[in-house]
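Example record used in the benchmark description.
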Amino acid sequence: MILTKEARGYLSCIGQELCILRKNKGLKPIDDYRVMDMWFVLPTQNCDCHNYFKILFDTMETGGILKNDRYVLPRVQGLWHSKEFAGVTVKL
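Model output (structure tokens):
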């Protein structure tokens, strides 16, 4: 997968933050299959929530939350559009 400069920066920065969080909370990396419920608020209607999975899962793997992103079973629970409130909520 080819990542943009912005995506590489996100992966590095947020991956480091997740690593610190995981260590501070004493969490073990997820090493078995888990359903991940996800809610998306995307900035425009031509955005595709499926394009967000790979960078999100790779970042969680970089941060040590996931041992391997193949263990994630994504389940989209909702999709809305708003430029003001764009984001993703995840529940494991």
